[in-house]
User: Fold these one by one.
Assistant:
Number 1:
Amino acid sequence: MENPIIQTNTNILSIKDLCVAYTADHLSVSHVNVEIPRNQITAIMGPSGCGKSTLLRAINRMHELYRGIQVSGQMLLDGHDLMSMDPIKVRRQVGMVFQRPNPFPTMSIADNVMAGYMLNGLHPDKQQRNQIVERSLRSVGLWDEVKDSLTKKGTFLSGGQQQRLCIARALALQPQIILMDEPTSALDPIATSTIENLLTELQRDVTIIIVTHNMGQARRISQKSLFMYLGELVECGPTETLFSNPSHPHTASYLSGHIG
Amino acid sequence: MNIHSALPSRDKIFRNLLFVSSVIILLVCASMILSLVTDSISAFGEFGFFRFIFSSEWSYQEGNEHYGALPFIVGTLLTTTLALLFCIPFSLPVALFVGEYYKGRRITSFLSTITDLLAGIPSVIFGLWGFYVLRPIVVNLGLSEQGSGILTASFVLAIMIVPYAASLSAEFIKMVPAELKEAAYSMGATRGEVVRHVIFPYCGSGIFSAFILAIGRALGETMTVTMLIGNTNQIPLSITDTGNTMASIICNQFGEANGLRLSSLYAIALILFALTAVINIIGKILIKRAQIK
Ligand SMILES: Nc1ncnc2c1ncn2[C@@H]1O[C@H](COP(=O)(O)OP(=O)(O)OP(=O)(O)O)[C@@H](O)[C@H]1O
Ligand SMILES: [Mg+2]
């Protein structure tokens, strides 16, 4: 905020020469360079095992939770060196939504939304709390469906509702970026399209990076697309260009269903 | 050549053997319970069931025999409760260490081996250690004159049940799904916050059941307690007092008792049996429930 040059920068995140290795002899993400545009949806595609999840989890530094995973390179979040920030602060600004809906089974719907605050030792007063719960649930279109059962367990909801609850939970902390790893692959088509519409609306407030196997989905909701192959970023650019005129043969054959 | 005809008949003999062994075990069990009941009848008949349980007199002067189980019931409940309290600050950290913080690391299997070893040590060795090492410390600290008593026995008992409480709790801690922990981490939670707000709420009932089973072990532990509790037959008035548990009074007096006194020991045995059975059944049910989740 202090620096007007950074503020007006259209890219919120810039990734430079990022490598991730689970074992010493193999790079699962290999020398990736990419810019992530602010308030847009960026899709990551590629065949299974090409390193999409691994790249995504490098951004909120989840790899540090496990031993022996080597991450190198540079990432700038709004111009700040993400790798030298406190990982706790990074994760508050960069939220995550997982493949399978994972609301906390021991918490009510409202408590799930407030989980980020509680886990960070923040205790907003009752009024603020109600505001955050309502705002977050409204932004995922869940408010009207659950406003009378806020004290019920989140695990009673349907899969699609649970996933929206998880998005609300991530949104509650007002992150700058939300990372989503195949967030609709466990959901039926109707729940999937609800979430796609939701993401399109959310991009006004938050930058979204989404891993998806669903090419139609990438095409419908994303403005920028990345195509990965064997750990490398082989192609990236505006989604329309990538789909209509892929420049790399691997991309072309993946998009036409020949690999993956 | 006649392998086809030989197999079924051998199979049959084997099956019958299994059946007979199982029946024998069942019979032994039944006869044990039966003798507990029949041999305690005269004590319960003489004093009445509730009078026996709530009487605190234990006098075996001829012509003035009075037996009541209250001092030993109190002694048992007191040592068990204290042992549980002392055991928690050791077993919970061990369980977290093994099940979460150092899960799957080499140091964990080392620690597990040590705790398993602890579980395998004969209780008389714990008793010996408690008597010659811990008891003088209790005396030197000025906690009690004689050193033996409820406190000393409970402390050693606590160490004995740590392996049970810790290893079972660790199993439940390991069962917490990684996706829930990652969800918490992804919102900026620290490890401690994940433990407090995700792991404990998720497997609290499992950990609770682990401690119930540990209580089940502490209730009936005999040798260590008999060596350390001081063996007096009054209701202990403070935790540094001497006393007796149900197990230790039986162990102390079974050899010299006869008649009404022996029947009273049987009656105490029956109560202890029922109590441990109930606690173990509750523990098992709780564990099943916790695992289903
Ligand atoms: N925890 C791990 N330890 C070791 N290797 C791993 C681990 N996780 C992933 N890998 C390897 O890293 C590579 C990339 O995996 P990643 O999960 O990022 O692929 P992905 O593109 O997300 O695949 P999918 O579409 O199936 O989810 C794979 O070769 C995989 O085997
Ligand atoms: Mg993946």
Note: Residues 1-7 of chain A have pLDDT under 50 and may be disordered.
Number 2:
Amino acid sequence: MKESLVDIQNLDVRFTGARTVHAINDLTLNLGQGETLALLGESGSGKSVTLKTLLRLLPPKRTEIGGKIQVNGTDVLTLSGKALQQYRGAEVSMVFQEPALALDPVYSVGAQIAEAVRRHKGISRDEAMSTALDMLRRVRIPSPERRLRNFPHELSGGMLQRVMIALALACRPRLLLADEPTTALDATVQIQILLLLRELQREFGMGVIFVTHDIGVAVEVSERIAVMYAGQIVEEGTTQEVIKDPRHPYTRGLMAANLHGVARGERLNAIPGAPPSLETRPAACSFAPRCPLAEDACRATLPPVHVPSPRRRIACIHANAPVSAE
Amino acid sequence: MSVIDATVLPGPEAPIDKGGPNQPLLIVKDLKKHFPVRGGILGRNKVMVQAVDGVSFSVRKGETLGIVGESGCGKSTTARLIVGLIEKDAGEIIYDGEGLGDVLSLRDLRRGVQMVFQDSYASLNPRLTIEDSIAFGASVQGLSDPLGRAHSLMARVGLDPARFAQRYPHEISGGQRQRINIARALAMSPRLVVLDEAVSALDKSVEAQVLNLLADLRAELGLTYIFISHDLNVVRYISDRVLVMYLGEVVEVAPVDAIWARQAHPYSGSLFSAMPSMDPDTRTKKPPLTGDPPNPINPPSGCRFHTRCRYAEAVCKTRVPALQPIAAAPDHLAACHLHDLSSGHEKAGKEGLL
Ligand SMILES: Nc1ncnc2c1ncn2[C@@H]1O[C@H](COP(=O)(O)OP(=O)(O)OP(=O)(O)O)[C@@H](O)[C@H]1O
Ligand SMILES: Nc1ncnc2c1ncn2[C@@H]1O[C@H](COP(=O)(O)OP(=O)(O)OP(=O)(O)O)[C@@H](O)[C@H]1O
Ligand code: SF4
Ligand SMILES: [Mg+2]
Ligand SMILES: [Mg+2]
């Protein structure tokens, strides 16, 4: 692996309050400098919580966090005050699914990007504005001089997402977190944004964690994939390894449920059932109730983690089972 | 997962097939809907968004028509016009041979045509239990035994009434809610169900469950679907024919295999090649379409796609291409001068272009 950028060790995140949710359970994940990783998984599996923990965005009063997170050598979980502010934006920044929520409707997009740069870099207003203009150019917004003065509501969905990316990258973070940034966009705009992110990632040499539940999107943007289920990583490897040789039954189920190449009218191999509620901490394989290969051992204890090669792992007793002929 | 049990739909009626098997279930002719919005610098002028501008197509009994196209091209507006949720400005809606407004009342149309929306949560009343939500429409329509109907429909969409009937919408998962929305639409015994991004918010594993359910219901109840989605893989899986819209107009209609093999309209070509690759070794290299869609308040002259089309020539800016069969196949329609030998487009009729 290249020099380490993100090092998450045995992370636990639990929400307390009216209802306890064990959102993240003993999650370990590494990312090298300049690597792109897709976090793939179903709704509620903890993808967003993982990103929010990395940015320290969770409500401290109702959240219990255990484990260790280092980003670029910084101990993230102990940061506070000025250091935390500096870390957010300058070291790590985030792009959300809904750009409208992240942008302020009463300021022009140029002013918002400039303000973010000024806060972190302490440069003059004029310099900040020219950085903003440069960023709009880099995200390929047509007539950027004019768009600088536009308000968010004057831009289309695809353009807003570009502005969001410009804002996130304005301070040249080492790590970009992207939470389903193209899910709300249609296919032609989605592919534009994905390719733009790929280019900017290379240009800036930053690391990217990209959350999605769309396998095709993961294939387009990432060199590595980690598959989440019930707050844990159940499979990890290079994109080639995970897509061409999925080993965990959940990953295999996802690939089989995928419609790509399925003949019309043929029955889909849907994964039956629904994910667990996470009211208690998983003490066995969380996928067992839905798994076609489940045995007593799967329901009794946490599955062993197979590590066939240094950065490949599968949390399943059947990791080496041949792929069923179907 | 098997969701179909032996229960039969309660209440009146297999619907009467008035027009006979060859009468399309739905014919839409030159449908128009323009929305007034505020425009101009100060927002004082009233201008019109040409959301749907002269859309024509038909849906045969028992078939599934997929509708695709860029965001804002008028798919949902078309759907809402068809189910009578909004009033058309012009054009005709003919349901099983009867025109809306002359023979057919809005009430009759709404009984025959039901809609399922994307947002499973927003379309259910949070204060009604699930059984009441399903029974509500049926009782408004005066159908017999609405609660019994609700229970057998719940069983049919794979939700045990004993466990789920008394729950509220926030007490079930997204996939379960979408099944409830489907059950609610079916409670009216419709013949045509319009599904507008009905599986888009679901996880892939749940999406597959709901698509299997839709296929079962179609086979069993002889339903006809109009299926709107951004996801071309889903559209391919479920549709018999596909209709492509661009900026309020229909640009192509074809059987699903035909359009998959060959997109006749340049916009359809871009749309289909925008699908993410599923193979890490052959990732997409260049976006097939750049720029934003033009403003529907003031759409481009001639062919509305000419501002972004790589085949555009002078004639494309001045003349509107008609939607007509392409030379190779009578059931494959496209609205592009490239397919009209008399259009004067230099490349018209040249093989191997698209
Ligand atoms: N602030 C919170 N308080 C309580 N529970 C929470 C909170 N945020 C998230 N959760 C719960 O934690 C679990 C993981 O949520 P998360 O948002 O990470 O899922 P996700 O994988 O991002 O799903 P999606 O694909 O739907 O966005 C879920 O069960 C969710 O309900
Ligand atoms: N009630 C309304 N008032 C004003 N404009 C409207 C209204 N409803 C829709 N529009 C406009 O009409 C056009 C077509 O919208 P429509 O919702 O039909 O598109 P769509 O194809 O369903 O898009 P999407 O894929 O994003 O759902 C858009 O420009 C939209 O902004
Ligand atoms: S009519 Fe002209 S501009 Fe329109 S799609 Fe065909 S070639 Fe392109
Ligand atoms: Mg999320
Ligand atoms: Mg819509």
Note: The pocket of iron/sulfur cluster (ligand 3) is lined by residues B 265-266, 303, 305-306, 309, 311-312, 316, 321, 336-338 (CB under 6 Å).
Number 3:
Amino acid sequence: MDFNLTEERQMLQDSLRRYLTDRYDTNVRNEILDSETGMSDRIWAELAELGVIGALFTEEQGGFGGKGFDIAVVFEELGRAGVVEPLLDTAILGGGLLARLGDDDQRALVEEVIGGSLHLALAHGEPAARFDLSRVETTAKADGEAILLNGRKAVVVNAEAAGYLIVSARESGGAFDRDGISLFLVPADAQGVTLRGYPMMSGGRAAEVTLDNVSVSSSARLGASGKGYSALEDVIGAANVALAAETMGAMQSATELTRDYLMTRKQFGRPIGTFQALAHRFSDLLIELEQARSAVINAAGHLESSDRDRQIAAARNLISRVGRLVAEESIQMHGGIAMTQEYELAHIAKRIVMADHRFGDADYHLERFIELGAA
Amino acid sequence: MDLNYTDEEKAFRDEVRAFLDEKLPQEVRDKVRRGISLGKAGHDEWHRILNEKGWLAPNWPKEFGGAEWNAVQRHIFEEELAAAHAPRIVPFGLSMLGPVLQKFGSKEQQEYFLPRILSGEHWWCQGYSEPGAGSDLASLKTRAVREGDHYIVNGQKTWTTLGQYANWIFCLVRTDPDAKQQEGISFLLIDMDTPGIEVRPIILLDGEHEVNEVFFDDVKVPVENLVGEENKGWTYAKYLLTHERTNIAGVGFSQAGLDTVKRIARAESANGKPLIENPHFAARLAQVEIDLMAMATTNLRIVSGAAAGQAPGVESSMLKVKGTIIRQEINDLARRAVGPYAMPFASEAVEGDNDPIGPDYAGPVAAQYFNNRKLSIFGGSNEIQRGIIAKVKMGG
Ligand SMILES: Cc1cc2nc3c(=O)[nH]c(=O)nc-3n(C[C@H](O)[C@H](O)[C@H](O)COP(=O)(O)OP(=O)(O)OC[C@H]3O[C@@H](n4cnc5c(N)ncnc54)[C@H](O)[C@@H]3O)c2cc1C
């Protein structure tokens, strides 16, 4: 057992933290939040240059990391700083699928992702699917040489910026079958693709995507026909580690902001942190934060193991519970100031709470954990 | 003890329902349901409709134009309003200032101000909090100095809810800086059109302009606008806070909120079944409903006790704490119930008159969840309420 980061990861963490501390303060981020694209191209380019995107891919994939702990290190830092740029979507989900399933041409795009010149989005979830990963009703039907895609995809994060959408569609089977789901690499400007874009509660943008007789050739398929599900599970597993780490990073910021505020804000002639009613609750947050850190370590350390899914379910359930506690208690112990959009904690709290709505909330992961434990 | 509504009370409920069916415009209900702000005109219109019926001020005595309902009637009214997705009645003039003027105001003040609260001519906001004086309200610094028949006011208020719509503000100001904190405070009524007042918006974490900062720079206020006696403002302020708190139990809101959660959970599916049948979700929902059933009775017990002449002292603190915990829990359930469709930021700019992005119930839930974190902060935070309960019950 060794709970230290490797030298490379430590360097990555240090340089990313330094960069974000210098360049991604509340004002910069609030400008990004208000911008039309909901992200900063400059920040994106600089993150790529720092190697942050490359760290999310293995050497065979063209990067220099890609393991659970690489993902955790990067996303913890992104979470601390409340970064809204779509690394999860472009790199972990989109890039992850290309790297796993792509042919030579498709894999060549991974290089562009790592270099920062290409954005991707995973168009998988559907309006009625909630968190059910295998529920795909979008269809892919042969039409002569071509394949026609029809359906609707819900809350597709980063769709507007993406050069390509990776679309899941059913080639066979019923609405919930794992078999029969294929993945297609669809240029975002393909005829029949319509986006209705909007900002999200915790920053960044997403879109409702309608696919109306979108015609692609069979070479657009990623991997084998009807066999996309297991790769989806892989990248969503990685995304869950990323989300857990990001949330844990954000929880750290929330507790640090709360500590500083408790020590400086005075009411009744004394710092409010000297009221035991608050001091004990602050301590509870720190206790739960350590739990969250361990849960992330468990999940990250098992990303390549057979116990992966159970560990991930455990981490996301725990972090959803204690994340909510940290977000709500931090706001409460600040008082009114934390309710204002400009204040750092407001954004951080939103990142923590809204993570619940991607790839499963506390209940979903609790059920997964029970199911997997029984299996 | 009799937990049944009397025939009279049932008839009253029917009357309220019939009134809402007829008079509450559908588009207003839709806006409230979708969490779209009504703007000043929308609120004014709803107040006008209620006032025409004589129902705008349920808690005011008849002599001042109120409905003078008892606790059970008010409870029924509140329940029906919330269930119909009626806009909330803006409390500052009606629930806060009104009772203070009725108890402590001069005859002239009562005659001038109370009708204008009802007619909507005056929109009031509450100028209590300051940047340095939140929970410790008595440390407020905004200064009023008597000069002839005016006070000259200097200082800053903050968190002023809907101050952007208001033309009047009631303020706590310091008139005697040398007295003990609570003893140097006065209660002033200030016309917002007076030169020297500046209102600046504060945008809350849900993106809404709900609160403001209000700056006072040599603002001249006629001495007639002092309520009661100089330096006795703290007494009036506390009286007002008790009224603010009874309403904050929000049982009607919670009941309507719970109905909304059920509606969402019937429409959403998880693993191919309605979410409402999911055992984990159903258990959470049941737990809150159980709490709320008891809370509704606690509320009635306490409020009706007060109507019979008992002051709802420390119990109002209990109502506030438990009431807000329940409301916040319901907001959390609603947020979870919608799954991924909680993520879109459904501002008016995005949705406007367009179709909602996801199911129509999904739009406001995340914003409401974040916005209602305020419930346990304002009106005396839940920590302050717990402090009061402990102090009173342990003989402090
Ligand atoms: C949305 C919103 C609307 C509002 N509208 C109005 C309005 O219209 N008019 C108006 O005048 N005010 C308004 N307020 C202000 C509100 O009343 C204050 O926010 C509240 O009094 C708390 O003050 P504070 O925010 O300065 O927090 P602080 O008083 O600084 O408190 C910070 C934290 O310390 C805790 N704390 C403080 N003292 C103690 C203690 N002795 N023991 C234990 N814990 C303690 C508090 O509970 C809180 O958790 C509004 C606030 C909000 C958020």
Note: Chain B touches chain A through 52 residues (CB under 8 Å).
Number 4:
Amino acid sequence: MGTKYDVIVIGGGHNGLVNAAYLAKAGKQVLVLERRHVLGGAAVTEEIFPGFKFSVCSYVVSLLRPEIIRDLDLPRHGLEILPLDGTLTPMLNGDHLWRTNDYAHTKREIGRHSKLDAEAYPQFGQAMVQMCKFVRPILGMTPPDPTKLNWDTISKLLFLGRRFKNLPYQEKYDQVQLMTMSAADLLDQWFETDALKATMSASGIIGTFLGVRSPGTAYVLLHHYMGEIDGAFRAWGFSRGGTGAISMAIAGAAREAGVEIRTEAPIARILVKDGKAKGVVLTNGDEIHADVVSSSVDPNLTFLKLMDADRDLPADFVEEVRRYKYRGSSGKVNLALDGLPDFKCIPGPGPHLRGAISISPAVEYMERAYDDAKYGHHSRRPYIDMVIPSLTDPSVAPPGKHVMSCFVQYAPYKLAEGTWDEKRESFGDTVINTIAEHAPNIKNIIIGRQVVTPLDMERTFGLTEGNIFQGELSLEQLFFLRPAPGWANYRTPIRNLYMCGSATHPGGGIMGAPGRLAALETLKDWRKGGIG
Amino acid sequence: MSGARDVVIIGAGHNALVTAFYLARKGLKPLVLERRSVVGGAAITDEFAPGFRCSTLAHAVGPVRADIVRDMDLAKHGLQMVDPDPRLFAPTRDGRAVVLQEDTAKTADGLRSLSAKDAAKYLEFVQAIGRIGATLAPLLSMTPPDIDRPTVSDLWGLLMTGKDIRGLGKKDMFRLLRWGPMAVADLMSEFFETDALRATLAARGIFGTYFGPWSAGSTTILLLRAAADGHPAGPSSYPKGGMGALTQAMAAAAKAAGAEIRTGADVGRIIVRDGRAHGVILKSGEEIMAGTVVSSADPRRTFFGLIEPVHIEPDLAQKVRNIRCRGTVAKVNLALDGLPTFTAVRSAGAAAASILGGRIHIGPEIDTLERAFDAVKYGEMSSEPYLDAQIPTLGDPSLAPAGKHVMSICFQYAPYKLKNGDWATGRDTLAETTIKTLAQYAPDLPKLVRSVQVITPADLEETWSLTGGHIFHAELALDQLFTMRPILGHARYRAPIRALYLCGSGTHPGLGLNGGSGANAAREILKDLKR
């Protein structure tokens, strides 16, 4: 292998591709190596059944940073976000709660259940938007190291401190609650309708091993509120052609910037010589050299699988890496349907099927689902977030047919008994039965079913313990603690080796921020002559 | 105003008595008004069965801050502490036990029989907790800073603590940052492999809270308690004569300093005019005017029970309503005909007595504690509870007739409101559950039980006016500590009504029987009164 690159990016997921694109736009010669035959990592579209295109893992988009969409000119590369309108919650009493982007309709609908909640709902939205505005700059900031009193730390901490100090009292109050409370406790302060609280609190637990009553989940709730499409807060959508199309658009931008992308190029190990990364060795034995290695895979793979941790890394760093918590808690069931599900609460087809359908009828229902997981069982009656993208984007299913994507929590990676290979289908059945309680016809219209367990996510996508965010979004694993205390600035104890995946600040979701921030930090070191 | 008092203090719990003492010491003449016939609030001793006395509610100190014990000279006023060693005994299901002694090395020796690895790790744990606790200690005696206009002294205080924290060194600093929001179960699994040891040490993060060991943030509670007492077991000391002896000594100290205490004086409401407190009106109709009013009642009761709604801004009222105080602790006191034989105690006689002399932790697995917690989330009492017990007669035989014993037990978790049924009937189930659970470890206990006293969260509210039956007045959660206790922006012991102060456990630091809230409040009051 004669050619030597400036940068090798490990992993062709959305963060790896964003990282590569930014580095290439800065004039670097970049090679992206993807283990699988498809790009996108967990943001991937695959035709599992002929004619049916599944967004196998990640299925809705909202968090993708606007600056990235701009910088990489993604729309020109085929990115098209289709609106996901509303959320339908079937209730235990046969009634329903159907919120849409139509403000007046939503207010009327919530008012059916509680006048007070109808009043509080827009106020809550307002408060959240304020909170998002406060937190948003942090998403675009490389975390400081609070143990170092250097100018970078001081200025950033002062910046945050001043921002907080200047908030009006009420917003200070909301902010501290948001950073510390549980989603359910927070919502209890605003609303009385159980189904409303349950469905809203669900955003607080996605991808975590926490329950809606666990402190810290209020922040994750905000994290999901952060979603913005064309600047509009709290708007979620599909990408035409499935989430894979997002990765394709980013890949397009990257290629245009000169990035070379190789699929089916699994890496055996990262070349490390006297404390410096020199390149990688593929499983086929090929050695590829580069000045910089940028890893978008999680710390477990990067440091414990792709190198000799005990030889190449300081012991206490290895300790931190081993301690970093993944604990995947969610699964995915993707369905190829012969028709549309018929919900008892709103019979027949209609606009209510175009948005998200959330099986989260009560806060206690959510909490009990979590209790099962705590003791190593998948929820007997899980929280399910369903979408039917084929209604908005017919290109993903044959005419008259549909695909339904079901995100399921909880499905703990570590089972008290048995293995996920044994439990996969029974887990699938549990999900279908739970859906059938609300849409009885579901069983008759399924023509294909793909069950993705945490174990499958680990095997197929290289997500350790099946965590969709490359590590839990719990308070002790955020900002300057993500992924390891003192190593939140995308650098590693090994010179020329960088991290650019969701395991780094600001974490998971199809956001792209880690990839971008890592690229900026890498380029900073380059300018300072710190590379090589 | 003729006959006006300079200060009235509502309630005569330990914090109120501490406040009274410090105010009196500076020449004020505080009048302490206690609704019940005895002072002491939740720190009292009662004869619950003929000849059997014990600490009715709290049975171990937090501990009381050393400077407070010194200033009040409690020893001179009759306080004698019993300091058991071992501090804690935690039987396992297989007839073994975790025994935490005063001495770290000895404890480690004992742990070796459970796991050599854990025995080795124990030392590291003791040191880490000790160091971090010591660094946090200044926070407990500090008045939370003003979030809008931090004063020089606030900043200085924080700076000093910050300095100490930086003194921890990188590893501990990051531990502090990382551990704070963590679940105490996670913290334990970072150190130990033995479930029994994990559960025993984790308990300190959940006692008296609406937390299970898997609740994020429970580590903060453990660390803050370690700030008051660095020993991993937590304090197990108790006064001779039961907890009432502590508050009796405090009352004596306060009186000696010039405070006046009236029992049977039930405050109906606080007199508020043009945004200022002017005194109180007793249920009897008697008016007592005062320049300063201090309430040791919990925040909800103070704002909703003692002040007319017109004096409280709507959004303040909203925030007070938001204060979470869902109690989870019930108390069971047993009169025993003899000392129960724990399977895990191989020795007999004096040796046995010494092992059982401290606190007894029941709940040998993390999952057992967590399942106990699950129940309360759904309005049920734990079917296999976490018990924190004590046999004070081992250190203080005077509490029971010769040869007899009393066992004082904190039962977790018991919901404030039962989803099915009520506490009138639920209390018997709770007693049975307690005895059944203890019998798993001390089979002969049931037949030794001569009499049982049960105090449910409902009783705590009814008899001791603890809103929601919460023994710490307000939940110990990340969002209700320090500058947020009881409400962000009102954490400096000054109520949003002029001349009205809070000095109860619902203010910083709360956490337990340590007198911190009372002492801190007194300091702020004296500042305002230029004393």
Note: Chain B has 18 helices and 18 strands.
